[in-house]
Amino acid sequence: MSANLSPSGQQPTATYDSAFLKACRREPVPHTPVWFMRQAGRSLPEYLKVREGIPMLESCAMPELVAEITMQPVRRHHVDAAVYYSDIVVPLKAIGIDLDIKPGIGPVVEQPIRSRADLARLRDLTPEDVWYVTEAIGLLTAELGSTPLIGFAGAPFTLASYLVEGGPSKNHEHTKALMYGDPQLWADLLDRLAEITSAFLKVQIDAGASAVQVFDSWVGALAPADYRRSVMPASSKVFKAVEESGVPRIHFGVGTGELLGLMGEAGADVVGVDWRVPLDEAARRVGPGKALQGNLDPAVLFSTQEAVEAKTDEVLAAAKGLEGHVFNLGHGVPPTTDPDALTRLVEYVHTKTAV
Q: Backbone phi, then psi, for 187, in 5-degree steps?
C-alpha cells in the first residue's frame, strides 16, 4: 500500500499534505521542506550513545534501535522528513553475501563477484529476509504521524561496484574492466541487483514509507555514454518497479553534474543535485517535469553562521524558478558537524521561505 493513499486508493493519508511530499509532487508549499542525507546519526551525540558497541550492520537489524536512530534528527532538527536508518548493503547481507562494514573503510566483501558463476550467490530478496525493516517502519510511522518517512536503497551500479571491487574504490578499475570487457555479464549483474533493490524498496513502501531515495554514490565515475548504455537500464527497472506505489522516487549521486539529465530520464520524480552545479543550471540539464533536491555544500556548515546563511541564500535564489524544491545538502552530513548548525539551518530555511 502506498503511504500516500488509503487502501482504497481514494483518501490521502496523514503524510499526503506534508511540505516534503508536496514539493516532490511539484505542488505549492508553505515553506521549502528540509531533510539531510545521513541525518540519522553520525554527528549526533545521542546517536553515538545508543550505537556504542553495536556494529553497523547489527544495528540495522534491530527494529527498536532503528526507530530510535531514525527519530533522533526529527526531534532535534525539526526536519520535514525522516530517512530510514539503514545501509545500502543491508539487502546484500540479508541474502547471504559475506560482507561487513569496517570502521574507517566501509563495506568490505569477502569474495568479490567477478564471474558468471558468482551471480548464483545473488538470490532473490524476500520480505522475510528483512523482517526487521517491516517491523521498524511500523514503529516509525506510528510515531511520525504526519511527518513522511523516506525509504532508501543503493542503486545497482553502486552495489555492483562494491561487489566487484570487494570494497570502496577511487578508480573502480575492476568494475569498469568488467563493464567494458564482458558487457553481457555486467548487464546480467546489474539486472539481478535491480531486482534485489526493487524488492527492498517495495518492502519499505508496503510497510509505510512515504517516498524512496535511490543512492548511486559512485555513478559520477562514469561518462554519460557509459551511463546510458551500461547503467541506465537497471536504474530504470528499479524506478519502474515501484511506480505503481505512487510514492515519490528520488535519484541521487555524487559528482553527477554531467549525468543529471540521464538520471531524470531514468524515471525519478525528484533528482538530487550535489553542490557542484547550481540548481537553476541543474534544472536546465534535467528538463521540465521533475523536482530537484539539494544542494548546500556540507563543508559550509563548518563556517560561520553568516557564511552558512549567505550560501543558503544562494541555493534558495537558484531554486526560485524550480517546479519543486527539497532543500538538502549536496552530500551526506559530515560526522564532525556541529548538530546545532543543522538545527539552525532548518530554522533558517523554514523562516526564509515561509509563504
A: -60, -40
